[in-house]
Design a protein that fits this description.
- With 336 residues, the chain is an alpha+beta fold.
- The chain has two domains: 111 residues, Phosphorylase Kinase, domain 1 (2-Layer Sandwich), CATH 3.30.200.20; 204 residues, Aminoglycoside 3'-phosphotransferase, Chain: A, domain 2 (Alpha-Beta Complex).
- Helix content is 48%, strand content 14%.
- The protein is built from ten helices and ten strands.
- A hairpin with a 2-residue loop joins strand 8 and strand 9.
- The longest helix is centred in the last third of the chain and has 20 residues.
- The termini are far apart.
- The model has no long low-confidence stretch (mean pLDDT 91).
């Protein structure tokens, strides 16, 4: 008899023991996998391994599943388990809508949805095989930035249904808590975080009316995977109706953080920024304005909050954390 899988205490999700049970998940997923072309006969075990790869305590966890068959790098399936079981359905329906849109010829590819398991609060999809933008080099990286812009333009022009909307008042409350968290964890950054928060408040007071289109809300270089020259975007958990400037500015601020992490030559950064912004503008007519300035400063404070907690886009800051925090807060102040 198989012993129950160990679930770390920090996960705190009731269905995690089931999500990590290979035999149980093989039986649950067999009907979906057989129809999706995965190895194995209907009803036979399809999974060879399950491992927890990420979690947001009390919110969601990510499980990677291996499937027997020809050797290939990485897992075959990804399962996301949500504390709020309704979120699993919402995210899975969004995956299905964008996957169908991409199949119709639009540039908004996402991982292929495989199964929604409402009893586990879980969405399962095929693992994307592309390389993230930060792992590319030379012309491939600039081409990848342009592909990311094309994907974003396609999303922003779509009419996919979203259950949530960007709430400026709630976000401004979050900004206050982010600045306080930065000051608490890194006292050397307290003054800069307070000054940036004040600048953001000033920008918020001058904002024109925000648009409401489908936005990703967490669009950055590691959520864009390049497969055969096309962008496949992952992690749709934060998608909602909002202003497109958030995604554009968010991507740009993260790109600048990547540049300082890599000590990227200014010319290379300029090429990447141009490839992204010019491609997006050509598709949408976008011109940076007060909304772009606001969301750029907003993202810089968000990144500082992630850095002090050791989260956000990899690599984790490690011993270089203070330099990166100082840089991103300075970036927000310089460009607001």
């Amino acid at each position: 008899m198989t012993s129950p899988p160990h679930v770390p205490d920090l996960v705190e999700l009731e269905s995690m023991s089931e999500a990590l049970d290979i035999d149980l998940m093989s039986r649950r997923l067999a009907p979906f996998l057989a129809g999706a072309g995965f190895p194995g006969d209907r009803g036979s075990p399809h999974l060879s391994a399950a491992r927890l790869v990420d979690c947001s305590p009390g919110k969601r966890a990510v499980v990677a599943y291996d499937v027997p068959g020809p050797a290939r790098p990485g897992p075959a399936l990804i399962g996301k388990v949500y504390a709020d079981s309704q979120r699993a359905g919402q995210v899975h329906r969004l995956l299905e809508a964008l996957h169908a849109r991409a199949a119709a010829g639009h540039r908004c590819r996402v991982p292929r949805p495989v199964a929604h398991l409402p009893e586990l609060g879980m969405s399962v999809y095929a693992a994307a095989r592309g390389r993230s933008l930060d792992s590319l080099e030379g012309p491939e990286r600039a081409d990848g930035a342009a592909a990311a812009a094309g994907w974003l333009a396609s999303l922003h022009s779509s009419s996919v249904h979203l259950d949530r909307r960007f709430d400026l008042a709630a976000e401004r409350r979050d900004l206050v808590s982010w600045a306080q968290l930065v000051a608490r964890h890194e006292p050397r950054a307290a003054s800069a975080a307070r000054r940036l928060l004040k600048r953001i408040d000033g920008l918020a007071g001058r904002l024109p009316e925000l648009a409401r289109v489908p936005i990703h809300k967490d669009f950055h270089y590691q959520h864009v995977l390049i497969e055969e020259g096309q962008a496949v975007v992952i992690d749709l958990d934060e998608m909602r109706g909002g202003d497109p400037a958030l995604d554009v500015a968010h991507f740009g601020a993260n790109l600048r953080l990547l540049a300082t992490r890599e000590e990227m030559p200014p010319g290379e950064l300029a090429r990447l920024e141009s490839a992204f912004l010019e491609t997006y503008a050509a598709a949408t007519g976008y011109q940076p304005d007060a909304r772009h300035d606001f969301f750029r400063a907003y993202t810089c404070l968000k990144l500082a909050k992630q850095l002090v907690r050791g989260r956000g886009p990899r690599p984790a800051p490690g011993d270089d954390r203070w330099r990166q925090i100082e840089f991103i807060l300075g970036e927000g102040l310089r460009r607001s």
